[in-house]
Amino acid sequence: MKEIITFNPIESDKVVLPIQYNHMVQAMIYSLLDEELADFLHEEGFQNKNRTFKMFTFSRINGRYILKKDDGLIIFDGPIKLTVSSHFDDFSNSIGNSFLKRQRVQLGNNYLEVKQLAVEKENVNSEEIKVRTLSPISTYSTLYRKDGKKFTYYFNPMEEEFSETIENNLKNKYRAFYSEEAPEGEINIKPIGEPRLAVVKYKGFVIKGYTGKFSITGPIPLLQLGIDTGLGSKNSQGFGCVKLI
């Protein structure tokens, strides 16, 4: 389920945010959830062995903007739009009701009026779909240098590991959410055209991902989970949000 929210800035016609604003959107989302649900997702989440999933993702903020790179700011002029997506009905109901009830919400130092809320259910009916990214898809593995030190390697869409990592991630999410074995079958994802590298800082950590359009094949239940909760890793930090095309 996707909730597409349009906000109007209050007290000004501008929304001023740091260029690296993902943590502020995440904080706003948690602040809007029912307290018990927010605690569950933040402290526990859905678990499969040693992996934990929050089962939601969100898009980049859309709107007219200018960048002030020297100041590290992005300044939106006028309304802005955000998509929040989840496979977890309790999450979707909680965040949707909260947006409907509140006259205004806070994002960073900005107060925003909820101008419009649209709800969209994207149903996957085929084992082959095409999507476009609403936020970058990030896949990675922790590797070791010759000196034994760890480092994070981010896969690009041309590497086989990009698909393999997304497949393993979706199957782990499925096991965590449904408490049963994931459907058999491979996930294959290929870029349509040239994907673009995006480098994002989240709370001081550099995260790499890719934006663009992609063709994906695989079992329908896994594709549906990917459409709803996001593809790849770090979904609840604003990565992997996609839309059917």
UniProtKB/TrEMBL annotation:
Coiled-coil segments: none
UniProt GO molecular function: hydrolase activity, acting on ester bonds; RNA binding
Keyword Cell division: no
Site description Transition state stabilizer, residues in chain: 54
Domain called CRISPR associated protein Cas6 C-terminal: residue spans: 122-244
Active site (record annotation): 30, 42
One GO BP: defense response to virus
InterPro entries (UniProt xref): Cas_Cas6_C, CRISPR-assoc_prot_Cas6, CRISPR-assoc_prot_Cas6_N_sf
UniProtKB keywords: Antiviral defense, RNA-binding
Function: CRISPR (clustered regularly interspaced short palindromic repeat), is an adaptive immune system that provides protection against mobile genetic elements (viruses, transposable elements and conjugative plasmids). CRISPR clusters contain sequences complementary to antecedent mobile elements and target invading nucleic acids. CRISPR clusters are transcribed and processed into CRISPR RNA (crRNA).
NCBIfam families, per the entry: cas_cas6
Similarity annotation: Belongs to the CRISPR-associated protein Cas6/Cse3/CasE family.
Name by which UniProt lists this protein: CRISPR-associated endoribonuclease
Annotated organism of origin: Keratinibaculum paraultunense
